[in-house]
Amino acid sequence: MLPRKRVGKPQDLDALLVLLASGQSHFINGAVIAADDGFGAA
Questions:
Q1: Which residues of 6-19 are buried (b: 16+ CB within 10 A; e: fewer)?
Q2: Contact 8, 37 (CB under 8 A)
Q3: CB 3.0-4.6 Å disulfide test: which of 2, 12, 17, 23 passes with 8?
């Protein structure tokens, strides 16, 4: 049932964490970011 046929690993969140820690995320405020590999997008 998983789109990538595997369970996510902590390092799969690296790019998101770097984005949120950077100055590029200055306009993100109170957002819920689903790290579900598209599973909840149905």
A1: eeeeeeeeeeeeee
A2: yes
A3: 12
DSSP 3-state assignment of 23?
A: helix
| 34-40: Cβ within 8 A, 24+ apart | 35/8, 37/2, 37/3, 37/4, 37/8, 38/3, 39/1, 39/2, 39/3
Q: Quick check: pTM over 0.70?
A: no
Q: In this predicted model, what pLDDT tens digit does every residue of 15-42 receive, in sequence order?
A: 999 999 999 999 999 999 888 777 776 5
